[in-house]
Specification:
Layout lengths: L2 H12 L5 H8 L17 H14 L14 H12 L2 H22 L8 H17 L5 H14 L2 H7 L1 E2 L20 E2 L1
Parallel strand pairs: 1-2
Helix pairs in contact: 1-7, 3-4, 3-6, 4-7
Length: 187
Protein backbone atom coordinates (compact mmCIF):
# COMPACT_ATOMS: atom_id res chain seq x y z
CA UNK A 1 0.00 0.00 0.00
CA UNK A 2 1.44 3.38 -0.96
CA UNK A 3 0.69 6.75 0.62
CA UNK A 4 -2.06 7.57 -1.88
CA UNK A 5 -3.77 4.26 -1.10
CA UNK A 6 -3.49 4.97 2.63
CA UNK A 7 -5.20 8.32 2.09
CA UNK A 8 -7.96 6.65 0.07
CA UNK A 9 -8.42 3.94 2.70
CA UNK A 10 -8.67 6.53 5.48
CA UNK A 11 -11.31 8.44 3.56
CA UNK A 12 -13.29 5.28 2.89
CA UNK A 13 -13.10 4.02 6.48
CA UNK A 14 -14.13 7.33 8.03
CA UNK A 15 -16.54 8.46 5.34
CA UNK A 16 -14.98 11.93 5.08
CA UNK A 17 -12.48 13.48 2.70
CA UNK A 18 -8.87 13.97 3.74
CA UNK A 19 -7.92 17.64 4.09
CA UNK A 20 -5.43 19.19 1.70
CA UNK A 21 -2.88 19.97 4.42
CA UNK A 22 -2.94 16.38 5.69
CA UNK A 23 -2.66 15.03 2.15
CA UNK A 24 0.30 17.28 1.47
CA UNK A 25 2.10 16.25 4.65
CA UNK A 26 1.59 12.54 3.99
CA UNK A 27 2.74 12.78 0.39
CA UNK A 28 5.87 14.64 1.54
CA UNK A 29 6.82 11.75 3.78
CA UNK A 30 5.33 12.51 7.20
CA UNK A 31 4.75 9.19 8.95
CA UNK A 32 4.08 7.86 12.41
CA UNK A 33 7.07 6.88 14.50
CA UNK A 34 7.11 5.89 18.15
CA UNK A 35 9.28 8.30 20.13
CA UNK A 36 10.20 7.17 23.67
CA UNK A 37 9.53 9.84 26.35
CA UNK A 38 7.77 12.02 23.77
CA UNK A 39 7.00 15.56 24.89
CA UNK A 40 3.89 16.96 23.13
CA UNK A 41 4.45 19.95 20.85
CA UNK A 42 0.80 20.91 20.26
CA UNK A 43 -1.61 19.12 22.59
CA UNK A 44 -1.19 19.04 26.37
CA UNK A 45 0.05 15.92 28.15
CA UNK A 46 -3.47 15.29 29.44
CA UNK A 47 -4.93 15.60 25.93
CA UNK A 48 -2.22 13.30 24.57
CA UNK A 49 -3.08 10.66 27.18
CA UNK A 50 -6.70 10.68 25.99
CA UNK A 51 -5.70 10.75 22.30
CA UNK A 52 -3.42 7.75 22.88
CA UNK A 53 -6.19 5.80 24.64
CA UNK A 54 -8.65 6.57 21.82
CA UNK A 55 -6.10 5.70 19.12
CA UNK A 56 -5.31 2.38 20.79
CA UNK A 57 -9.03 1.60 21.06
CA UNK A 58 -9.47 2.31 17.34
CA UNK A 59 -6.41 0.24 16.35
CA UNK A 60 -5.44 -2.01 19.26
CA UNK A 61 -2.38 -4.19 19.64
CA UNK A 62 -3.11 -7.77 18.57
CA UNK A 63 -1.10 -10.97 18.27
CA UNK A 64 -0.65 -10.23 14.54
CA UNK A 65 -0.07 -6.50 14.51
CA UNK A 66 1.18 -3.59 16.61
CA UNK A 67 -1.31 -1.13 18.03
CA UNK A 68 -1.58 2.59 17.36
CA UNK A 69 0.59 3.45 20.36
CA UNK A 70 3.28 0.95 19.33
CA UNK A 71 3.81 2.66 15.97
CA UNK A 72 3.62 6.25 17.26
CA UNK A 73 0.18 7.33 16.12
CA UNK A 74 -0.37 9.74 19.06
CA UNK A 75 2.94 11.46 18.27
CA UNK A 76 1.94 11.59 14.60
CA UNK A 77 -1.37 13.29 15.46
CA UNK A 78 0.38 15.85 17.69
CA UNK A 79 3.01 16.70 15.08
CA UNK A 80 0.45 16.82 12.24
CA UNK A 81 -1.73 19.23 14.21
CA UNK A 82 1.22 21.52 14.90
CA UNK A 83 2.82 21.39 11.46
CA UNK A 84 -0.09 21.16 9.01
CA UNK A 85 -3.06 23.00 10.50
CA UNK A 86 -3.69 26.71 10.07
CA UNK A 87 -4.16 28.69 13.31
CA UNK A 88 -7.98 28.60 13.10
CA UNK A 89 -7.86 24.84 12.42
CA UNK A 90 -5.52 24.39 15.39
CA UNK A 91 -8.03 26.13 17.64
CA UNK A 92 -10.75 23.80 16.35
CA UNK A 93 -8.53 20.76 16.95
CA UNK A 94 -7.88 21.75 20.57
CA UNK A 95 -11.56 22.52 21.09
CA UNK A 96 -12.46 19.24 19.36
CA UNK A 97 -10.31 17.05 21.60
CA UNK A 98 -11.47 18.98 24.67
CA UNK A 99 -15.06 18.40 23.57
CA UNK A 100 -14.44 14.67 23.16
CA UNK A 101 -12.79 14.48 26.58
CA UNK A 102 -15.59 16.41 28.32
CA UNK A 103 -18.39 14.49 26.57
CA UNK A 104 -16.78 11.21 27.60
CA UNK A 105 -16.31 12.38 31.17
CA UNK A 106 -19.93 13.56 31.34
CA UNK A 107 -21.32 10.32 29.96
CA UNK A 108 -19.03 7.88 31.76
CA UNK A 109 -18.21 9.74 34.98
CA UNK A 110 -14.46 9.55 34.34
CA UNK A 111 -11.82 10.17 31.68
CA UNK A 112 -11.76 7.91 28.64
CA UNK A 113 -8.29 6.61 29.55
CA UNK A 114 -9.63 5.49 32.94
CA UNK A 115 -12.39 3.31 31.47
CA UNK A 116 -11.99 -0.44 30.97
CA UNK A 117 -11.09 -1.57 27.45
CA UNK A 118 -14.64 -2.87 26.97
CA UNK A 119 -16.19 0.43 28.09
CA UNK A 120 -13.79 2.38 25.87
CA UNK A 121 -14.83 0.36 22.84
CA UNK A 122 -18.54 0.66 23.67
CA UNK A 123 -18.25 4.41 24.10
CA UNK A 124 -16.21 5.01 20.92
CA UNK A 125 -18.60 2.85 18.92
CA UNK A 126 -21.45 5.08 20.07
CA UNK A 127 -19.45 8.25 19.30
CA UNK A 128 -18.51 6.87 15.86
CA UNK A 129 -22.12 6.08 14.95
CA UNK A 130 -23.31 9.50 16.12
CA UNK A 131 -20.53 11.27 14.21
CA UNK A 132 -21.34 9.45 10.98
CA UNK A 133 -25.05 10.22 11.33
CA UNK A 134 -24.20 13.93 11.72
CA UNK A 135 -22.67 13.97 8.24
CA UNK A 136 -18.96 13.69 8.95
CA UNK A 137 -18.23 17.13 10.47
CA UNK A 138 -17.20 15.67 13.81
CA UNK A 139 -13.74 16.15 15.28
CA UNK A 140 -13.84 12.48 16.28
CA UNK A 141 -13.94 11.39 12.60
CA UNK A 142 -11.08 13.72 11.77
CA UNK A 143 -9.03 12.25 14.61
CA UNK A 144 -9.98 8.71 13.55
CA UNK A 145 -8.78 9.55 10.06
CA UNK A 146 -5.42 10.69 11.43
CA UNK A 147 -5.18 7.49 13.48
CA UNK A 148 -5.71 5.38 10.36
CA UNK A 149 -3.32 7.49 8.26
CA UNK A 150 -0.63 7.45 10.91
CA UNK A 151 -0.98 3.72 11.35
CA UNK A 152 -0.87 2.74 7.67
CA UNK A 153 1.95 5.14 6.80
CA UNK A 154 4.17 3.98 9.67
CA UNK A 155 7.29 2.02 8.83
CA UNK A 156 6.42 -0.70 11.33
CA UNK A 157 3.06 -1.45 9.71
CA UNK A 158 4.52 -1.12 6.23
CA UNK A 159 7.24 -3.66 6.94
CA UNK A 160 5.73 -5.96 9.59
CA UNK A 161 1.97 -6.08 8.88
CA UNK A 162 1.66 -5.46 5.16
CA UNK A 163 3.57 -7.48 2.58
CA UNK A 164 6.86 -5.68 1.98
CA UNK A 165 9.55 -6.19 -0.64
CA UNK A 166 12.46 -3.79 -0.02
CA UNK A 167 14.04 -4.66 -3.38
CA UNK A 168 11.15 -4.94 -5.79
CA UNK A 169 11.56 -6.90 -8.95
CA UNK A 170 9.32 -7.04 -11.96
CA UNK A 171 6.11 -5.05 -11.68
CA UNK A 172 3.02 -7.22 -11.89
CA UNK A 173 -0.07 -5.01 -11.91
CA UNK A 174 -2.67 -7.56 -10.93
CA UNK A 175 -1.80 -10.31 -8.46
CA UNK A 176 -4.21 -12.63 -6.71
CA UNK A 177 -3.99 -11.96 -2.96
CA UNK A 178 -3.99 -15.69 -2.30
CA UNK A 179 -0.48 -15.82 -3.84
CA UNK A 180 0.65 -13.49 -1.07
CA UNK A 181 -1.16 -15.08 1.86
CA UNK A 182 -4.03 -12.61 1.58
CA UNK A 183 -1.87 -9.66 2.70
CA UNK A 184 -1.93 -6.31 0.89
CA UNK A 185 1.44 -5.10 -0.44
CA UNK A 186 3.23 -2.16 1.14
CA UNK A 187 5.26 0.19 -1.04
Amino acid sequence: MNRREALQKAALLTGIAVSGSVTSAILQGCQAEHIPNYEPVFFTKEQMKEIAAMAETILPNTADSPGAIDVGVPEFIDIMAKDTLKPEQQEKAKAGIDGLIEAGKTENGKLFSQLSAEDQLTYLTKVDQAAKSEGGNSYYLQMKQLVILGYYTSEAVGTEVLAYDPIPGEYVGCVDLSENGGIVWSL
